[in-house]
Design brief:
221 residues; Growth Hormone, Chain: A; mainly alpha; globular; 0% strand
Length: 221
């Protein structure tokens, strides 16, 4: 099934990564999940969308009291640390071979975030620092490996260029990837938001853990 999906996303001989393009769809879903947890429950900060955090830094410096300068800077720093760590792992092997190990570390970080959320909640400063650091670090790792894979229109986090291409270019095979990316992130955000409001942040993180576990296992196989 994964091969069929990958071929549908990249038909013909354009796919150089086997089933990995298909696995970017659930990773995009995870992006929506964790950003729902962070934005709705962690002082209005993103752990995946660094563009938003950079803008939030500017707003906070301008005097927006509902935004935290330090939490946004923490998310950016943790994201960069995760990306740096993934870069070191990728440098030791081919990018396809590094996909499963990098995703496994990401899975470990989100699992730790789930444990923190269950044990300490998400309201206290210590819990928020831990959750933002773990989740942003994991998303930095995800972005680093996806960037190296370089599957067109499937960045798993940034949709501005994707939506621009969807609107400005003629329909074709690229539109499939763009539409799937938009729906995947929106679906993750919807799921994360519903779980956050009606069950609690740990439920959304548990779904992210389950999805990442499946992606790690599929990537190893």
């Amino acid at each position: 099934m994964l091969r069929r999906v990958a071929t549908w996303l990249l038909p013909g001989d354009t796919n150089r990564h086997g089933v990995l393009p298909a696995l970017l769809i659930p990773l995009t879903f995870v992006t929506g999940l964790v950003d729902a947890v962070s934005f709705l429950g962690l002082s209005r900060v993103f752990v995946a969308n660094m563009t938003g955090n950079v803008v939030f830094v500017g707003f906070a410096l301008a005097g927006a009291r509902q935004l935290s300068l330090w939490w946004s800077l923490l998310a950016i720093g943790a994201f960069m640390a995760g990306a740096w760590t993934a870069g070191r792992l990728i440098a030791r092997s081919a990018v396809d071979s590094a996909f499963a190990p990098v995703t496994a570390v990401h899975l470990t970080l989100v699992t730790l975030a789930l444990a923190v959320s269950l044990l300490f909640g998400h309201r206290g400063d210590g819990a928020q620092i831990a959750l933002i650091s773990l989740l942003a670090g994991g998303m930095g790792m995800q972005n680093a490996i996806v960037r190296k894979l370089a599957v067109p229109d499937m960045t798993t986090t940034v949709l501005t260029t994707t939506i621009t291409g969807l609107a400005s270019e003629a329909p074709g095979t690229a539109a499939r990837r763009r539409l799937v990316s938009v729906l995947g992130m929106c679906g993750g955000a919807l799921c994360g938001g519903l779980l956050h409001f009606h069950v609690g942040p740990p439920a959304a993180l548990a779904v992210a853990v389950a999805v990442l576990a499946g992606v790690t296992l599929a990537g190893r196989r």
